[in-house]
Design goal:
CATH topology: Arc Repressor Mutant, subunit A
Shape: globular
Structural class: mainly alpha
């Protein structure tokens, strides 16, 4: 017997609810990582951004990090000072333009991050492995479209406060 077709609006709502829950869980893992390292949540968020960039074979500058975590340049500088003093990051000058600073994680914090996030990584990998490359491509396109819609809205002037 055929399954009844679900209400498309209800399905969309379930999907959006799932994405919101994913975002909340991501923030909770960041918060727990921060507590585990004895850091402020924003410091851990920055550290995760630096580690993630390195994992992908790229690097972040302080300006790019500032954009990623939505902090002012001065607040980002203070945050980087704390992370550097704690031995979690180093700032290097690797470019021809010596004014450009590259953020790198320390090997010690990389080891700690691997210890903390490895169990989650294995579970996430197992969940993703259930889907075909075509299904993942469709989901990737969907997430890209959602981000584009959100970025377009964020680019609009803010509504006046009520």
């Amino acid at each position: 017997m055929d399954q009844p077709v679900s209400d498309p609006r209800a399905q969309q709502q379930r999907l959006l609810d799932g994405l919101r829950a994913y975002g909340a869980n991501y923030r909770e893992f960041s918060r727990r990582f921060a507590a585990w390292l004895g850091l402020h949540a924003t410091d851990a968020e920055a550290l995760i951004e630096i580690l993630t960039a390195e994992e992908r074979g790229t690097t972040l500058s302080p300006a790019r990090l500032s954009e990623r975590i939505a902090l002012s340049n001065s607040a980002t500088t203070a945050l980087l000072n704390r992370l550097e003093q704690a031995g979690h990051i180093v700032r290097t000058r690797e470019h021809d333009d010596r004014r450009v600073i590259t953020l790198r994680s320390s090997s010690h914090v990389q080891t700690l991050a691997d210890e903390f996030f490895s169990p989650l990584g294995k579970r996430v990998e197992a969940a993703i492995d259930k889907y075909s490359p075509d299904q993942l491509r469709q989901f990737e396109n969907f997430v890209t479209d959602l981000r584009a819609a959100m970025n377009a809205q964020l680019a609009q002037p803010a509504d006046p406060q009520p």
